[in-house]
Amino acid sequence: MILTRRNLLLTAGAGLVTGCDTLGQNPTFREVLKLGEKGNFAIQRSLQQRSALAREFDRTQISPIFRVNGTHVPAGEAYAQHTAEKFVNWRLRVEGLVNRPLAVSPAQLQQMPKRTQITRHDCVEGWSAIGEWTGAPLKLLLDAAGLKPQARYLVFHCADRMGTGEMYYESIDLIDALHPQTILAWALNGQALSVGHGAPVRLRVERQLGYKHAKYVERIEAVADLTTIRGGKGGYWEDGSGYQWYAGI
Amino acid sequence: MPSPGTERDGRIFRHRLSTRLWHWINAVAVIVLLMSGLTISNAHPRLYWGHYGANFDAAWLTLPRFPGWATIPTGYNLALAREWHFAFAWVFAFGLLFFMLRALMNGHFRRDIALGVKDVAPSHLWQDVKRHLRLNFETPGGGYNLLQKITYSLVLFVLLPLLILTGLTLSPGMNAVLPWLIDLFGGRQSARSIHFICAGGMALFIAVHLVLVVLAGPINEVRSMITGWFRVKGEQS
User: Fold this and answer.
1) Computed from CA positions of residues A168, A172, A177, A181, in that sequence, does the dihedral angle turn out positive or negative?
2) What CATH number does domain A53-235 carry, 3.90.420.10, 3.30.360.10, 2.60.40.10, 3.30.870.10?
3) pTM across the whole model
């Protein structure tokens, strides 16, 4: 190649861009980059009061249409059967590092003390939608099950498979698990939760982005450590695509 | 270490070490933030006003898809773009804080950037516009000209702080810590729109800045931002 100024500029430009790609693939540099995320987690947790609330809105501020994201209808006969039976045989199990494992039906969940909150759902992609969620505070369920002292995280195992064929799952720490706005929602905008939004029960963890809000929750597992669960990074998107486990930003 | 304004052998000491250091660190941070920001824009290129905004709501602006050569990384990878963005956001925010404190302490703002009411009188502005059109950027004392001071003030005190504050407003975690930020910008989607507008403003600033550096004598200008010494006219290098 003859070194003209044009070629030189093109090479330099391409080098800059592909240089960033090369750096982004370098494990050491990746660890350095992740310091930003770790810093965000540390500083947000230190600034946040444990029970600092996410903004709640009034009814006039609800999105006209709350878009469905992720799975629209979980595949498979088992879920179709549950839909046909209106979820009467669905059981939400609470197990792992708990003293009294539970299996709760949607009807039992709805009989528990409920919390209704109009909150904003923020997708990692950038859009937001506001809706009124009603559900049982997760804390009540955990109190009933009795967390063992070793329990540090809660893993939410879901009934839907994502594009790669993996079952969806997510996890949160105890600070978010015990937060007053963290609920197992069974209604959106005064209606029973639709299939698209996660029927019969989905997690709401209002200080984090949408992918943490697991839909179609079947099993809540209390664990001491996330590295032994599935891909080890604490969630479907974290394992498969490198998304941040702490999604507070 | 000479103090700014010192003249020696036809050269004038223009930029302190703290200014030069911040300039280059910030240049890298801002470019990485802009390019990783374009990947994030590609994830949902629609801008809304108010608290909410998604596909079924009216967007006031739909951005084009930005090509791979303009984004970090070159292929679409939102998770990795976010890692770049958040890592360099720390460099950007604390770099700006460091520079602002230094500039306040050493008088850089007061001496070189501050504008009086008389400075921005229309007649002065018009004079300066005319000088720019003749590609004459020099001032008698070797300091910044009027349009330069106005532009640097806007960037330093409006664009850069707004980018940080609107960026923080996008975080649901920070919303719980600083809920007043949501009200300040009229909602998360408004804050996102303002974040994009300011980013566009920064891209425009960089483009104009580079063109003017070239027009004003690139070697002298770039050297002065590396060594601090600016060659005064008449002794061209």
Assistant:
1) negative
2) 3.90.420.10
3) 0.93
